[in-house]
Amino acid sequence: MHMSESDLEPAWAREHLKTTPVEAYDGMGCLDENVLASQLVQVTDKEIAILAEKDVKAISMPLSNCEVGGGIAPIEKMLEAGMTVGLGTDGYVNNFFEVMRGAFLIHKGYHKDPQAMPARKVYRMATELGAKAVGIEAGVIKEGMLADLITVDVARPTPINEYNVYDQLVLFTNPQNVINVMVGGAWLKRDGKLVTLDKEAVRREVLERRFRMSLTKVGEKHFSVVNHCVPRIDGVDKVTGRARYAADIYMEGMLYAGVLRSPYSSARVVSIDAAKAKAI
User: Fold this and answer.
1) What pLDDT, in 10s, does the model give residues 6-63?
2) I need a labelling partner for 100 at 20 to 30 A (CA). Which of 8, 227, 275, 278 fits?
3) Whole-prediction pTM value?
4) Helix and strand numbers, DSSP H then E, in the chain
């Protein structure tokens, strides 16, 4: 359940329902241990207490929340209330280590407290609590748990020891440092190499499929932007409900859109080469 990512949802609930979103859902009997709440940025202490009482699980998306200007989720309050809170990307970032770093750093700045959101807590949210939130028996190396694990290269300038291992993992690790990946006891990556996929073949197939999908229908109406001024979308407030995300830009009959970045406040499309499309 997507819940209170910005001020929009609470404001709507107060205006139309005379209550908060969480209280509204609770009043309708929608909250229990089977609910997974996404975001939970603009929630009150009372709402957190209700969510904890109903054993609602939560997934925080720290970088996505910043990208849309939604705010900073009160993760530590939720954890202190006994809620199960994991970490997620919301599709905005595909580097989960960046999400961990975001959770580690953002709350320190927000609370003006270097002790806020310690690396060990962030690591637990990314593993054990995240797995528990989505109902998977994983996240810890323990008998009876799924054999889902990764190993990372520990050869780095600062030696890793028992006192800094979580800080090193959260702050200085990236996907290229992952050496092995095991899911359900099966190796997906071994000694730095993918064992179930041909990376370059997959890349080529994705590019080819994307190209074919975007150019399946070629007609004059699809190129109606030629010689028209196309305003940039970067500055649009994406959390007011009055605008679309950049990925949602569309024209009638269009299957794919690409956003061209320009150093100018607006740009004019001069021409579009459809030769490759017509050759298909």
Assistant:
1) 999 999 999 999 999 999 999 999 999 999 999 999 999 999 999 999 999 999 999 9
2) 8
3) 0.73
4) 11, 10
Q: Locate 30 and state its tokens.
A: 């929608």
d(CA 239, CA 223): 29
* Contact by Cβ (8 Å): 68, 5: yes
Structure tokens at 203: 């890349």
User: Helix, strand, or coil here: 10?
Assistant: helix
Coil vs helix vs strand at 183: strand
- The per-residue pLDDT for range 237-251, each reduced to its tens digit, is 444 444 444 444 445
Per-residue burial over 28-42, b = 16 or more CB atoms within 10 Å of its CB, e = otherwise: eeebeeebbbbbbbb
Listing from the earlier edge strand, what are the strands of the sheet with 85-87?
2-3, 36-39, 57-60, 85-87
